Amino acid sequence: MTTRTATARYTGFGKTGKGQLSSPSGVLEATPYSFNTRFGDEKGTNPEELIAAAHAGCFTMALSFALAQAGFSEGTLETTAAVKLEQDGDGFAITRSDLKLHADVPGISEEQFEALAKGAEANCPVSKLLKAQIGLEWTLA
């Protein structure tokens, strides 16, 4: 079992608040996020961008392993994930993640590729997470 973590810190509240995201690997190191990085054009990241990166990366790696297991050793895969954030009553909801894949796999049939791609989409851990239950523990200082 592997557990990965990330930490979000937010100072202030609402549209004027500012946040930072960090991860032990150092890939995220006090990376800014805020209302303006999510809904405007301020430099920084946002949850939807991070989910899109995670989904594209996870799916592409899952498909890579499925192709290797099926005996393919050469080629390239490039996936873009588009995560959609929409108004949901008084709040917002992430309503979908669309994967767009461009692949070059010499010697594979369209039918075999479709089966492997669909299997990777259904079984990559991030696809499963997007359908998972969420746990929450909290303390108030």
Provide a short characterization of the protein structure.
By secondary structure, the chain is an alpha+beta fold.
Describe the structure in your own words:
The chain is an alpha+beta fold. It has a domain at 46-129: 2-Layer Sandwich (GMP Synthetase, Chain A, domain 3). 33% of the residues lie in helices and 29% in strands. It is built from four helices and five strands, in the order E-E-E-H-H-E-E-H-H. Helix 2 packs across helix 3 (110-123). The mean pLDDT is 93. It holds the Pfam family OsmC. One of its GO terms (molecular function) is peroxidase activity. One of its GO terms (biological process) is response to oxidative stress. This is OsmC family peroxiredoxin.
The first-level CATH class of the domain at 46-129 is given as: Alpha Beta
Q: Separation of termini?
A: 32 Å
Number of strand elements = 5
Q: What's the order of the H and E elements? A: EEEHHEEHH
The unreliable regions are none
Corresponding CATH architecture of the domain at 46-129: 2-Layer Sandwich
Please state how the strands of the largest beta sheet are arranged side by side: 1-2-3
